[in-house]
Amino acid sequence: MECATAAGTLTSVVLDTPESAPWLAVGQKLSLLFKESEVWMLPGGARFIPHCLKGEVESIHEGELMARVACRTQAGRVTSLVDRTWLARLALTPGAEIDLGIHPAAVALQKEEP
Q1: Is 98 buried (19+), middle (13-18) or exposed (0-12) by CB count in 10 A?
Q2: Cβ atoms of 30 and 62 closer than 8 Å
Q3: Helices (H), the chain
Q4: pLDDT 10s digits, 9-45
Q5: Which pLDDT score is estimated for 50?
Q6: Are 102 and 34 in contact (CB under 8 A)?
Q7: CB-CB contact of 43 with 99 (8 Å)
């Protein structure tokens, strides 16, 4: 199922149907849930990630092995957890444009209540 956001389109693997889950309807507002370890990052404009969100690096917090990269998108804040080697290869700095992708099997959908 493709889900349009203000920052781009994400895809989710959905096993339900509109008959078994009536809230799976075109135009229905949904929350997209995923773990920060499931977010892929590439420099902005790379376009290697299908259905990616466009964003900007907000902050980087490095630990001994991993780094947490917070990004602003038009759909809201997205955080990615990456190893420090990948962070060094990306050479990210706050303010850098970034493309963010999430594997479709890692995206869960939740109906937004009015």
Answers
A1: buried
A2: no
A3: 84-90
A4: 888 888 888 889 888 888 888 888 888 888 888 887 6
A5: 65
A6: yes
A7: yes
